[in-house]
């Protein structure tokens, strides 16, 4: 077997971030909460006395067995690195939505923010897409996108 399983976000406040992704981006609890520690975790993470808490959330649009968004927190968190769209590494999580502007407003009301402007881009076959980059309450970048036939 070979399949994509999850993406992990390390949060300063996992409960707040979990609530944000559930409310604003329609992720669902699948009762996979974690409270992990032990020698095996220390070996895996190469951290002494590692302790992880958090939850797996089912991403919208998928069946009940994955992929998930894993939001965890360690007892000890390193300083935050500011997320920037052109920083090497994972740049953003993307969600297809019906109304980019409406979801962006929800993100902002829920404590997130906007990175750039809402734009519309033309694609072949009379298709256009609306895009915006936003940030969740902890600064992780989220892409919102909506695809439609040109009017």
Explain what you see:
The chain has 151 residues and is of the alpha+beta class. It folds into 2 domains: 6-74, no CATH class; 93-149, 2,3-Dihydroxybiphenyl 1,2-Dioxygenase, domain 1 (Roll). 19% of the residues lie in helices and 39% in strands. Strands 5, 6, 7, 8 and 9 form a 5-stranded mixed beta sheet that branches. It has a 4-stranded mixed beta sheet with strand order 1-4-3-2, with helices on both faces. A hairpin with a 5-residue loop joins strand 8 and strand 9. The longest helix is centred in the N-terminal third of the chain and has 12 residues, at 14-25. The chain is globular, with a radius of gyration of 17 Å. The N and C termini lie far apart (43 Å). The relative contact order is 0.19.
List the helices and strands and how they pair.
Layout lengths: L5 E5 L3 H12 L2 E10 L1 H7 L5 E8 L9 E7 L18 E4 L3 H10 L3 E2 L4 E5 L3 E9 L5 E9 L2
Pfam families: Glyoxalase (PF00903)
Organism: Lacrimispora algidixylanolytica
Protein name: Glyoxalase
Overall tally of domains: 2
Instruction: Write the H/E string, N to C.
Output: EHEHEEEHEEEE
Number of H/I helices: 3
Q: How large, in whole angstroms, is the Cα Rg?
A: 17 Å
Overall helicity: 10-25%
How many runs of DSSP E, i.e. beta strands? 9
* Secondary-structure content class: alpha+beta
Low confidence ranges = none
Mean pLDDT: 92
How many angstroms separate the termini? 43 Å
State the shape: globular
Sheet with most strands: 5 strands, mixed
Give the strand content. Answer: 35-45%
InterPro entries: Glyas_Bleomycin-R_OHBP_Dase, Glyas_Fos-R_dOase_dom, VOC_core
Protein name: Glyoxalase
Organism: Lacrimispora algidixylanolytica
Domain VOC: 3-147
């Amino acid at each position: 077997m070979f399949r994509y399983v999850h993406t992990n976000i390390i949060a300063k406040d996992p409960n707040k971030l979990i609530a944000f992704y559930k409310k604003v981006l329609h992720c669902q609890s699948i009762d996979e909460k974690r409270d992990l520690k032990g020698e095996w975790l220390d070996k895996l993470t190469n951290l002494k006395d590692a302790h992880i808490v958090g939850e797996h959330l089912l991403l919208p649009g998928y069946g009940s067995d994955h992929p998930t968004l894993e939001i965890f927190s360690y007892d000890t968190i390193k300083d935050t690195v500011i997320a920037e769209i052109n920083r090497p590494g994972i740049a953003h999580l993307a969600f297809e939505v019906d109304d980019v502007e409406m979801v962006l407003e929800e993100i902002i009301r829920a404590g997130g923010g906007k990175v750039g402007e809402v734009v519309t881009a033309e694609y072949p076959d009379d298709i256009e897409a609306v895009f915006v980059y936003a940030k969740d309450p902890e600064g992780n970048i989220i892409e919102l996108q909506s695809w439609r036939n040109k009017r």
